[in-house]
Specification:
single chain, 223 residues, alpha/beta, eight-stranded parallel beta sheet, 10 helices, 19% strand, globular, binds pyridoxal-5'-phosphate
């Protein structure tokens, strides 16, 4: 199957309200252009250098999403053009994004990453941590950061019911924040969950944005 055919099939699988972010990390511009010609305009990358190189090489109506771990010292390279940063997982990073957004005179859209998997990982707020860090006064300081929702990754497991439980827990947290702290903020409406192996479950559990790489571009080869 070609990239365009794979995209068509995935589109049939996901409702119109769910955004498809094609994860193009490690893939050449030629592959990304195939997806672009098939109508995809949202692409996800996880390395700043690769992301900026592709941004420069490709059509300017693409929305670039940074889906990987975001290092504070690299925010400046993507601040002028990034459409959404998915992996925001600490307060210091929010402050850096605020500063860089101010410098570029734009508000930078972000998702807060929540650790929902049982696997050990350095990345992501715990639900409790998130609710203590996010205060009204912090949110008021962040004039150049637009917190648009939450992002999470389920455990890498064959146990479908575990994946389902993890996505459910993120959806519950998302709904709780949306009805409390973000009740008057219509920007807070993205729930980024689901990848090639688990996007069906994620959508069933309320995902509004799926990040799909290998199911579109094939397996990745890492050096
Ligand atoms: C690589 C990656 C994806 C896509 O993974 P696939 O299994 O290839 O669909 C999604 N989200 C994040 C955060 C990733 O790093």
């Amino acid at each position: 199957m070609t990239i365009a055919e794979k995209i068509q099939n995935i589109r049939k699988d996901i409702p119109d309200r769910v955004v498809l972010c094609a994860v193009s990390k490690t893939k050449p511009v030629s592959d990304i252009m195939e997806a672009y010609h098939a109508g995809v305009r949202v692409f996800g990358e996880n390395k700043v250098q690769e992301l900026t190189a592709k941004y420069e090489a490709m059509p300017k109506d693409i929305e670039w999403h940074m889906i990987g771990h975001m290092q504070s010292n690299k925010v400046k390279y993507i601040a002028p053009f990034i459409s959404l940063i998915h992996g925001v997982d600490n307060e210091k990073l929010l402050q850096v994004i605020q500063r860089e957004g101010q410098k570029c005179c734009r508000s930078i859209r972000c998702l807060l990453q929540v650790h929902i998997a049982t696997e050990e990982s350095k990345f992501g707020f715990s639900a409790h941590e998130l609710e203590t860090v996010l205060t009204r006064s912090l949110l008021n300081e962040l004039t150049h950061v637009e917190i648009c929702g939450l992002m999470g990754m389920a455990s890498f497991t064959d146990d479908q019911s575990q994946i389902q439980r993890e996505f459910k827990s993120l959806k519950i947290l998302f709904d709780r924040l949306r009805s409390t702290l973000f009740a008057n903020n219509s920007d807070f409406r993205i729930l980024s969950m689901g990848m090639s192996g688990d996007y069906h479950i994620a959508i069933q559990e309320g995902s509004t944005l799926v990040r799909i790489g290998s199911a579109i571009f094939g397996d990745r080869e890492y050096l």
